[in-house]
């Protein structure tokens, strides 16, 4: 199959030059020193990696984990009813599935901006509450961890819905009838039959939500306004205003390592579940 | 289906759609504040008078078009190449590029470009943005086309070759035509992904390559401006239409 090798060549070329080579450059930079004018200088050192253990950065990494975990946990009770609804809405299934996916494919920036529009001091929620006389000064809704988490849940909810929906689709409907025959109420059947059986879907969704939340940059940047800083913001800062590329490079690789570690862990767990 | 389930699903759909609908509604507000004062198209008029927005729109469309053509061509060939015989290395690299956080991909490309510029006399500009977009659109294209190929019957090509077609003819005349809807869907998704990207673009853009998301970002950080609402409304509606079109094509 000569043709096949020829067909794979352009993609290999793109991935090698525009993905693998850049990662290799980052790896190389992470072992160099920051130059006087912010460039990179040659002495080989592991100083950047040592600085990762700095308490300031450790606290940002742990904050990122807390925020990403909270987002993941918040997504489950929102996604489950939606997935259950999708699995039962018969001939309109495709329509509703598309409706779940549609916001995901429209610009992340626009979706984040929509929340700025709602949460600002002069935003829709505050002006509405003010005009109704429920509050006398604007609530501080924007630029805090809460706003960042709402934005992340909003952005990545479809990633939780789809895997749960996929597992629910595979569950025999007769199981619920059996539960009902045995005297289980509808909610009890959902809680004690459907939720445990859809655990693989919930786990898959958790990985799909946790990973982009952990590495997010735009949402904490716009909705956190410099007050809610996650790993992604520190990386961006090192490559722009702080101009400490070697440290930014080490931080990028640390983030990649965490992401890959989590994926491998999730993969091994999934295989374990199948056995 | 129980009413409780229907209500909760309705509420979650409201959570997904109300922010965007509110944004669109208030782009039609006569007043610049967030108090409704009547219907007006003045913010849309302002958009079309804004030189910066017009040139950024031109840049965004050009970048999205070029990166869509390149990534769709390469990605389709790649999916076909992976169809009958998997290549673990290539597949893993594609998945890796899919899970790499955008900010990491952006700084890596920036560092890579700067490293090359030491040896070549090139600067950041439209070309660096287009190449970056090709890189992150590629995996989407491969996955969409490969998903369609998996539902197809591989024996059709074998039949064609038994009847004397060459490998190329079997691809070109038998498989490729059946793939057109999937390729169109992949291209539409690549286009929207490229058109919407801010994080990577902002890092690798030069002075001549400001895109629409970069303008929105800059304006969003300043005070509320209803013309940004109008711009976002146009983007949501037009990108939403493209995505619905892609979803229809994918299932044909």
What's the arrangement of secondary structure elements?
The complex is a heterodimer of chains A (275) and B (252).
Chain A: H1 2-30, E1 33-34, E2 40-41, H2 47-52, H3 55-88, H4 93-105, H5 108-119, H6 124-131, H7 145-170, H8 173-181, H9 186-197, H10 199-214, H11 218-224, H12 231-239, H13 245-274
Antiparallel strand pairs in A: 1-2
Helix pairs in contact in A: 1-13, 3-7, 3-10, 4-7, 5-7, 5-11, 7-10, 7-11, 8-9, 10-13, 12-13
Chain B: H1 3-26, H2 42-48, H3 51-84, H4 88-99, H5 102-117, H6 126-150, H7 155-162, H8 167-196, H9 199-204, H10 212-221, H11 226-250
Helix pairs in contact in B: 1-11, 2-11, 3-6, 3-8, 3-10, 4-6, 6-8, 7-8, 8-11
What is the helix content of chain A? Answer: over 70%
Largest interface: A-B, 79 and 85 residues
What's the total helix number of chain B?
Answer: 11
Largest beta-sheet details of chain A: 2 strands, antiparallel
Query: What is the overall silhouette of chain B?
Result: globular
Low-confidence parts of chain A? none
Total DSSP helices of chain A:
13
- Sheet with most strands: strand arrangement of chain A: 1-2
Instruction: Provide the β-strand percentage band of chain B.
Output: under 5%
The average pLDDT of chain A is: 86
Mean pLDDT of chain B: 88
